[in-house]
Specification:
By secondary structure, this protein is α/β, with parallel strands linked by helices. It is 45% helix and 10% strand. Strands 7-6-5-4-3-2-1-8 form an 8-stranded parallel sheet. The protein is globular.
């Protein structure tokens, strides 16, 4: 590998800096009530993310290795089984074939994915399979994906997932509160989830494709952060429109403004529909340009994905061999 690769890959296995958790702040609609997002301006800026800069050759390989360390390797299907989750956990522990890592010169870095994300009933299976690895288990909760169940049941789900061993909880917000402008209600709901999480980190899923406007996306981001969210996340992956660069731009700028106001760093997680290496690099570029290099770490950035890992491994194999292999050679689980 060249010096360019070595100089860009050295930080991949570095430990994240300690991120002080966001305690939240008092509800204050004056902080977000007047937000109006210019969709045309957002779309113009988003369109430049993948065109103003290119990442090639050794640099691309280094960026792809960074991307896979930020993946919440996910299975959220009706046919999930304990065996499938165990295989997924094995892939999380060894996301790239050993021969590829050896050819890249990074086999000794202990590269893994950031987390494994499953439904509640499979938390224990994942926790047992990942024991001793340091890879956390994330669980979707609060009536995922629609969130159309009573609040007491949502809170019970959160508490039971934490008890089962989940270190991260991905909740879904009540979209109706956003669409009707019930911001106080949304704040109270998310704050209750934060309290129920205890030491587990809270990721709030906005379901951006169902919030009607970019202004609503920005306002919902603010309310969730004010209520104590550790991460804000685009989508469940089940909506007709999931993560996009325009939605992401609006959300990461809300994160930047919240940091300026409070000094607390909030993580960001695009999820749903991100399956190609080029897309992953575009999101990394967005984070670096808008929030800085410090956000290129699993403590502050995650991909919610499954098939993305297979494509990254395929691209890394191409980097070392010069040939593209069939996708089926890179199974995720």
């Amino acid at each position: 590998m060249t010096g360019a690769f070595e100089s860009n890959v050295h930080s991949i296995s570095a430990h994240d800096e300690h991120i002080q958790r966001n305690p939240g702040i008092d509800f204050n609609p004056d902080l977000f009530g007047r937000i109006r997002i210019n969709r045309s301006a957002v779309e113009r800026r988003a369109a430049t993310i993948g065109t103003r800069r290119t990442v090639k050759k050794d640099y691309q390989a280094a960026w792809l290795l960074k991307a896979l360390t930020c993946i919440d390797l996910t299975t959220l299907a009706g046919d999930d089984t304990p065996g499938k989750v165990r295989r997924l956990c094995q892939k999380a522990k060894r996301p790239v074939r050993k021969d590829i890592l050896e050819d890249l010169g990074v086999a000794d870095l202990g590269i893994t994915t950031a987390a494994v994300c499953v439904y509640h009933n499979l938390i224990e299976t994942a926790v047992n399979e990942l024991e001793g690895t340091g890879i956390p288990v994330a669980a979707v909760s609060t009536g995922f994906p629609a969130g159309q169940i009573p609040l007491p049941l949502k809170l019970a789900q959160v508490s039971e997932s934490v008890t089962a061993g989940a270190a991260e909880i991905d909740i879904v917000i009540s979209r109706a509160m956003v669409l009707t402008g019930n911001w106080q209600g949304l704040y109270d709901e998310v704050k209750a989830y934060r309290n129920a999480c205890g030491e587990a980190h809270l990721k709030t899923i906005l379901a951006t494709g169902e919030l009607a406007t970019l202004s609503n996306v920005a306002k919902a981001s603010w309310v969730c952060m004010m209520a104590g969210a550790d991460f804000i996340k685009t989508s469940t992956g089940k909506e007709s429109v999931n993560a996009t660069l325009p939605y992401s731009l609006v959300m990461v700028r809300a994160i930047r403004d919240y940091l300026d106001l409070t000094g607390f760093k909030i993580g960001y997680k695009p999820a749903g529909g991100i399956s190609k290496s080029k897309e992953a690099i575009n999101y990394l570029i967005l984070m670096k340009e808008e929030l800085g290099k410090q956000w290129l770490t699993p403590s502050l950035f995650r991909f919610g994905a499954s098939s993305l890992l297979g494509d990254i491994e395929r691209q890394l194999e191409h980097h070392v061999t010069g040939s593209y292999s069939a996708q089926y050679r890179h199974p995720v689980s």
